[in-house]
Amino acid sequence: MSVPEQLRYSEEHEWVSGLEGEGGGIVTVGITQHAADALGEIVYLELTPGEGDTVEAGETCGEVESTKSVSDLYSPVSGEITAINSSVIDEPKVINDDPYGEGWIFKVRVSDEPGDLLDAEAYNKLIEES
After folding, report:
1. For the segment 82-127, what is each residue's pLDDT rounded down to a tens digit?
2. Is residue 120 in some structural domain?
3. Please, is 44 exposed, middle or buried when counting C-beta atoms within 10 Å of its C-beta (0-12, 13-18, 19+)?
4. What sequence ranges are listed for the domain Lipoyl-binding (predicted)?
5. Position 75 in a domain
6. In a domain, 77, yes or no
7. In sequence order, what are the beta bridge partners of 46?
């Protein structure tokens, strides 16, 4: 399983891109390939905040439902939601097919320094131990 080097990861299996300053403080968030594989076929995605709402790092911001289970979705960063990927709301299977590309879930204008996000090496270690 590939874990892209340029991303940062939460222990709850969300990824974040854009923390290196590109994009004017706006980052993209999704769930990892590991999480998508563990869930199985994703059939429903609910994101509780909408565009313009704020999220807090580590807090629940939605649910991901698959044919196997329902899991909470957590925000890995704090800030204001600037965009929601409506295509994954309409067709959640996109997350299984392309979790690091077309399967992104939302974008956030980061308001605080990101907390304890993992680099690719540390995330690989985390999933190997689980």
Report:
1. 999 999 999 999 999 999 999 999 999 999 877 789 999 999 999 9
2. no
3. exposed
4. 26-109
5. yes
6. yes
7. 63
Query: Which CATH number goes with the domain that contains 44?
Result: 2.40.50.100
**Is 105 within 8 Å of 85 (Cβ atoms)?**
yes
Which residues span the domain enclosing 19?
8-112
If we measure between CA atoms, which residue out of 27, 26, 32 comes closest to residue 16? 27
Instruction: Give the number of domains in the chain.
Output: 1
